[in-house]
Q: What sequence folds into this?
């Protein structure tokens, strides 16, 4: 069984659990300092023209889909897990600006230049990096935007933690190898030509210890200050990037 099939089964299994539980709590609350990059991700999307046709890649069980729908995008949610899409169709059936398609991000079943916006949160490592980049570029209209939120793999502390998650069976080896790094970001810059990027959580590994002494607000303020002042890209935990497809004259 290859890694892609392992991940598909993993997410099918997670979705099955939620499908069989009524009144499930889908929105698991995280500390505010963990959500700083997520907030920036949605802030960037909120600044784009709407209504627009938006493709969400790697939707999973819809952790981010509801916010996209509330922003009034015409959302097409995709995932390799059919069970995940069955779940989010059930969750968001009352929205009219919503559709789902079972799709492999390495071979998107859409025509060229189909979408105004493509977004992806935490899923870039689930496909071959260059294949996924080229597929996103292909389905975007000229002048269209890609907005991505993901982990960065340059910091050895975070790499070690992800390797332990692999040993625990929570990750596949291919997702470790494909985790975005500064080199991949540079390839996106060269492909699209217009890149806006921000890095987060240079000291995220210290947050569990800081919670002993500091309030959530103090941790957020401290983290934002360090990220802004030091701008140490390679040590970041997360990044958010916005790219625009070149308009060739």
A:
């Amino acid at each position: 069984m290859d890694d892609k099939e392992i991940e598909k089964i993993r997410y099918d299994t997670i979705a099955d659990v939620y499908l069989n539980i009524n009144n499930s709590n889908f929105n698991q609350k995280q500390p505010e300092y963990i959500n700083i990059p997520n907030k920036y991700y949605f802030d960037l999307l909120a600044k784009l023209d709407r209504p627009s046709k938006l493709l969400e890649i790697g939707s999973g069980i819809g952790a981010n889909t509801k916010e996209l729908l509330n922003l009034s995008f015409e959302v097409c949610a995709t995932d390799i897990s059919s069970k995940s899409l069955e779940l989010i169709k059930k969750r968001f059936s009352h929205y009219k600006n919503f559709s789902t398609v079972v799709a492999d991000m390495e071979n998107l079943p859409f025509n060229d230049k189909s979408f105004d916006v493509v977004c992806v949160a935490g899923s870039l490592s689930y496909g071959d990096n260059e294949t996924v980049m080229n597929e996103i570029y292909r389905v975007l209209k000229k002048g269209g935007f890609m907005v991505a939120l993901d982990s960065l793999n340059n910091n050895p502390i975070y790499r070690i933690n992800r390797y332990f998650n692999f040993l625990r069976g929570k990750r596949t080896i291919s997702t470790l190898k494909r985790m975005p790094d500064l080199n991949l970001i540079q390839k996106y810059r060269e492909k699209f030509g217009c890149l806006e990027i921000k890095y987060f959580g240079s000291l995220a590994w210290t947050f569990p210890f800081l919670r002993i002494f500091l309030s959530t607000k103090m941790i957020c303020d401290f983290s934002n200050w360090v990220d802004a002042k030091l701008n140490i890209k390679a040590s970041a935990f997360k990044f958010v990037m916005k790219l625009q497809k070149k308009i060739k004259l």
Q: What stands out?
A: The beta strands are 53-57, 74-79, 98-102, 115-121, 140-151, 195-200, 238-244. Residues 3-244 form a domain with the Rossmann fold fold (CATH 3.40.50.150).
